[in-house]
Amino acid sequence: MEQTHDGPTLPPATGSTPARRRRKTDDPARRAVAELLAGADVEIDGERPWDMRIHHPQTAERILARGSLGVGESYMDGWWDCAQLDEFIAHVLAARLDEKVGATALMVQGLRARLFNLQNLRRTWKVGEVHYDLGNDFFEAMLDPCMAYTCGYWARADNLADAQVAKLDLICRKLGLKPGMRLLDIGCGWGSLMKFAAENHGVECVGLTISREQAEYGQARCEGLPVGFRLQDYRQFNRSGSERFDRIASIGMFEHVGAKNHAAFFEMARRSLKEDGLFLLHTIGKNRRRTPTDPWIDRYIFPNGELPSLGQIADASEDGFVIEDVHNFGADYDRTLMAWHARFEAAWPRFAERYGERFYRMWRYYLLACAGTFRARSNQLWQIVLSPQGVPGGYRRPG
Predict the structure, then answer these.
(1) DSSP state at residue 260
(2) Catalytic amino acids?
(3) Which of 10, 60, 141, 270 could staple 30 via S-S, CB 3.0–4.6 A?
(4) CATH of 120-330+377-387 given 3.40.50.150, 3.30.390.10, 3.90.76.10, 1.10.10.10
(5) Where is this region: Disordered (predicted)?
(6) Structure confidence by residue, pLDDT tens digits, 64-88
């Protein structure tokens, strides 16, 4: 179901009289944005689906002044539209226009990350409250039946449900799960991996989450299974090291840890893992470690998040682990996000009154813009298998 939702937020004057055309042509901010976008093969008010349609006369000034934040906020406010927003973002990122505008906002974001621990214990619960506690029925409508809110594995799948089952199966096979093992899931969400592992591999599971909504919902879904949820920050878990697990997984949580806490994260995993155990880390990552978090995503979607680079993961884990395998299937996140978006659009009439128009445009921008980042290969998705001492004879990734 395609919805434009342009009506009430747009300014009344959008005609094309000669005087109005002259004002557009004479606007230096609009000309500057048009020149930038031309480098990405995007036109203002063009006819192609990835072209930007500007409705508000101050849109260009807002974008130039605030960069990514200005692009996202002006979209939320109905100042501009695009028929294929995901492709617009992919064009912009492939041309690296994000590095040419809003430099001040990016610099401030980078300084915040360097000067402050944005993921300290006081702040750590904010993302759960702002994002994951939006409502279980909302996420049920958008996600697959497993309630997996991470990248699916599309190698042999042609729909979202199969891609998520394939991802869960891949993780279990990489970890070599067997009946009687104990699995720790750091950042367990609604328990999709634990439920799958318990049902299909006879594994006992413990999951950590910072979302009360997720913990309560997940525990109900896993009733009758050897699965337990703990509402706890990873830094507070198993401080004595007395609790050991055969396997550990962390699926889509490391993006919330932050570089200042990477070492603490791996230290906790190491003290909680048996000497012959395996640890699978599934995380979105960035290409370069000095790239700051996108300011719009930080403000509206994932407060205080920070994507790691592969080098940062290697640096933080080397004292406690041997990296056995690195698997990049970041392009699959494009298809996953587009599938979530399709389900979100179809379900939106049920939630429109509860969340409102600005939330709709915010969430739509989030899903489609993120799809564009993976399509442009600006972001990656890694599954990394680690062992405490190195697997005797070597680790073999299952086919």
Answers:
(1) G
(2) 370
(3) 60
(4) 3.40.50.150
(5) 1-29
(6) 888 889 999 999 999 999 999 999 9
